[in-house]
Amino acid sequence: MLIGVPKEIKNNEFRVGLLPSSVKEFTTAGHDVLVQTNAGASIHATDEEYIKAGATIAKDAKEVFAKADMIIKVKEPQPEECKMLRKGQVLFTYLHLAADRKQAEGLIDSGCTAIAYETVTGPFGGLPLLAPMSEVAGRMSVQVGAVAMQIGNRGGSGLLIGGVPGVKPADVVIIGGGVAGTNAAKMAVGLDANVVILERSLDRIRQLEDLFGPTANIIYSTKASVDHYVFNSDLIIGAVLIPGAIAPKLITKDMLKHMRPGAVIVDIAIDQGGCTETSKPTTHQDPTYMVDGILHYCVANMPGAVARTSSQALNNAVLPYALQIANKGWRAALSENPHLMDGLTVHEGKITQAEVAQDLGYEFFAPDQQLAA
Predict the structure, then answer these.
(1) Contacts of 151 (CB under 8 A, 6+ apart)
(2) Are strands 344-347 and 350-351 parallel, antiparallel or unpaired?
(3) What order of strands is seen across the sheet that includes strand 294-297?
(4) Which residues are catalytic, by number?
(5) Pick from 300, 321, 341: which residue ends a domain?
(6) For the chain, what is the domain count?
(7) Cα 353 to Cα 115: distance, rounded to the nearest angstrom
(8) Contact predicate 298/193, CB 8 Å
(9) Which domain holds residue 224?
């Protein structure tokens, strides 16, 4: 199979779909890899390193998309990339399609077979291709939130997240105790903040209690508890996830007027539409904005700011699944691996992911039936 790796073109996205070490795994297995020139330049992965790993260098994205059997990316295809996709071609990347109708239309029109990292499941549960970026985003959320609270950052409250002797630390509320929320809590606890995690799963609450003990308060999430803790916090981390679906809006615009002036919201769920009614995607270049005295940080590709760490972590997770597709062909790989099948989102103009179809108002086509057809 010919694997194509284009350079990412989303605003301030510096990650790369395959590192030279991953390319070597494909070429050793007998596959060809075509990498767009300078695809890894931002993380110091040179064309020469890719060539040494066995790849061929393409002069531009058009060549990669025209020749490759499978495209491996990081972020969702941009409109100009959707136009280059074609029927019979596999796209393997993050899609976050439920909150992106324009991308859905582009993928449907292309006729390609699109497999989303974020809905591929693991043999023991969880979302193994989403987890590493959730870990990065969770850890980054406290880091960027702490900076946003500084008074020089467009209206922050002027608080040091961990306080100092004799001065109270910041109150940090994390909505959602999954992978991102847990990693956010680890960072916030490590910085000596007062930490509350809001979670609905009793099993997960017990796990979090065992993990954090007295260093964080784990609270069952209800409308009343969300209101209480959000209104009395300095930093709110939105880490809610419903796999494949639009994130629920747990913080409404009306709630902002009851919050502490200068409080910061970091909405990790922004890729899935955001869990705050006032959230809108921002970029690393212009990451924050103010609504009713509350500072919002809603960067849609947070891990892109630490692209070297993120690319390595993502490659570690993606490589086994990508090799399955390359070695067996996408149809056999999906048929034999139900966890990989869970990632199939668009196939030859049809939506094959139930949550995406529901949120965007498309007809849902069962993935196994589409492959059989």
Answers:
(1) 157, 158
(2) antiparallel
(3) 217-220, 194-199, 171-175, 235-238, 264-267, 294-297, 288-291
(4) 96, 271
(5) 300
(6) 2
(7) 10
(8) no
(9) 135-300
Cβ neighbours of residue 198 under 8 Å, at least 6 residues apart? 173, 174, 175, 176, 177, 219, 220, 221, 225, 226, 229
> What's the whole-number average pLDDT of the chain?
95
What are the two backbone dihedrals, phi and then psi, of residue 217, each rounded to the nearest 5 degrees?
A: -95, 125
Q: What share of the chain is helix, strand, coil (3-state, %, to 5)?
A: 40, 20, 40
Are residues 241 and 269 in contact, defined by beta-carbon separation less than 8 angstroms? yes
Together in a domain, 240 and 319 = no
- CB of 275 closer than 8 Å to CB of 250: yes
**Can you tell me the distance from the alpha carbon of 37 to that of 40, in angstroms, rounded to the nearest whole number?**
8
At residue 236, the 3 state secondary structure works out as strand
Does 350 fall in a domain?
A: yes
* 71 falls within a domain: yes
Residues 293 and 321 in one domain: no
For residue range 64-101, what is the model confidence (pLDDT) as tens digits? Answer: 999 999 999 999 999 999 999 999 999 999 999 988 99
Question: What is the pTM for the complete model shown?
Answer: 0.90
- Residue ending a domain, among 300, 317, 341, is 300
Give a yes or no: residue 129 inside a domain.
no
The answer to whether residue 124 is domain-embedded is: no
Structural tokens at position 51: 């060539």
